[in-house]
Design brief:
Helix content is 28%, strand content 36%. It is α+β, with helices and mostly antiparallel strands.
Length: 181
Amino acid sequence: MKRTIIAITVALILSSCGKPLTDDKAGFEQVAEELKGKFGEGAYYTGITISYTKELGILFNVTTTNNPASLKMEEWNWVQNKWTQKAEVTLEITGGKPEDFMFQVDNKISIVKLGELIEQAKKQLKKEKDIDGVLSVSNINAPNDGDLSKLAYNITLEPKNGGTAYHFTYNLQGVLEEFNY
């Protein structure tokens, strides 16, 4: 009986920790599910930043609201399967509707597409520089001027053992617009 209780306890602890999310399409599919699960499918965002560390896997920060007209947003962090609210934000907007300064996941922006682009950037870095890159940070930020045509996927990769950071910018169709270091 005692061994059964210990085995169940260990199983519960291990399952609650979860595996770290990975810096690829599969990991970003899980990120998309986390966002939908926490904020709903209709949530609006002004920024999503997704980082990767070898120790923790994927961690992310979002600024979001379900009511753009309120001009009130919340900043949340997700680290090791746990959400933490970091701040409340009030927007000041001139010249346009609040929605003009925000985006929705799966409406122009795709977190899964971002994961695919990270895989593509890694392949390009390997081909052009013979470097095995890992994600340092990726982000999507709504432009401050409300021109959502400027939305882009931004990705920074670094060599596995550290070194020069390589920056990739893709448009919403997944076309590479900039690659530099």
